[in-house]
Amino acid sequence: MLNIVIFGAPGSGKGTQSARIVEKYGLNHISTGDVLRAEIKNGTELGKTAKGYIDNGQLIPDALMIDILASVFDSFKDSKGVIFDGFPRTIAQADALKAMLKERGQEVSVMLDLEVPEDELMTRLIKRGQECGRADDNEETIKKRLVVYHSQTAPLIDWYKKDGKYCHINGLGTMEGIFADICTAIDKL
Ligand code: ATP
After folding, report:
1. How far lies 141's CA from each of 13, 35, 50, 54, 152, in Å?
2. N or C: which end of the chain has fewer CB within 10 A?
């Protein structure tokens, strides 16, 4: 199986590029943000818990996310592969993902880090907030999410470098150009 982690700050384009990867390579998309938004929409207990964290720009606790991830991943077993979008976001989640895949005789194939400058992230997220009405895409929450990204999520860059899975992608440019760079990285696998 291909197990691709797509990584980057909020607004780096993980969701957009994941959709293209899914279409071209026939992979399954696991977006933890989408899973949580669906729970919120359906008014489940999990959704109620998640909403409090998301609206405040915070991460959902690791133990909860790790359980969710394992059950979603198992629903795709024996498929061509999976793209992890929005997971892992902490070192504990990266450790858990590695252990979970190992138990299933799998490993992460590559971690694609979409790098985008901070001012561009702000512009994109504010625009998305205005267009899609996503409650967490307002200036105050975006700033909190970026702080959380730098403190809790960015350390994963070194974690994946040490694990030998890191691949840098320039996340600035046309969507086609960025996707072409992603395909070059995937085709090497
Ligand atoms: P994109 O690059 O697609 O714009 P994003 O970072 O803006 O991504 P999502 O990935 O959709 O947004 O995540 C939205 C929110 O859901 C996060 O701010 C966080 O509160 C919660 N969340 C999603 N994934 C996780 C996770 N793995 N661990 C903890 N919380 C998570």
Report:
1. 18, 20, 15, 9, 16
2. C
For ligand 1, whether the C-beta of 32 sits within 6 Å is yes
Angle, helices 45-55/32-41, rounded to nearest 10 degrees: 120
Question: Are 36 and 135 within 8 A, CB to CB?
Answer: no
Q: How many Cβ atoms are within 10 Å of 159's Cβ, its own excluded? A: 17
Ligand 1 atom closest to residue 12's alpha carbon, by position in its atom list: 2
- Which residues touch 43 (CB under 8 Å, ≥6 apart)? none
Q: Provide the ipTM.
A: 0.90
What separation in Å is there between the alpha carbon of 165 and the centre of ligand 1? 22
Query: Do 183 and 104 meet the contact criterion of CB atoms below 8 Å apart?
Result: no
- List the chain pLDDT tens, one digit each, 189 residues: 999 999 999 999 999 999 999 999 999 999 999 999 999 999 999 999 999 999 999 999 999 999 999 999 999 988 999 999 999 999 999 999 999 999 999 999 999 999 999 999 999 999 999 999 888 999 999 999 999 999 999 999 999 999 999 999 999 999 999 999 999 999 999
Q: Record the pTM.
A: 0.96
Which pair of tokens denotes residue 34?
Answer: 């989408």
- Strands of 28-31's sheet in order across: 28-31, 81-85, 2-8, 110-115, 166-170
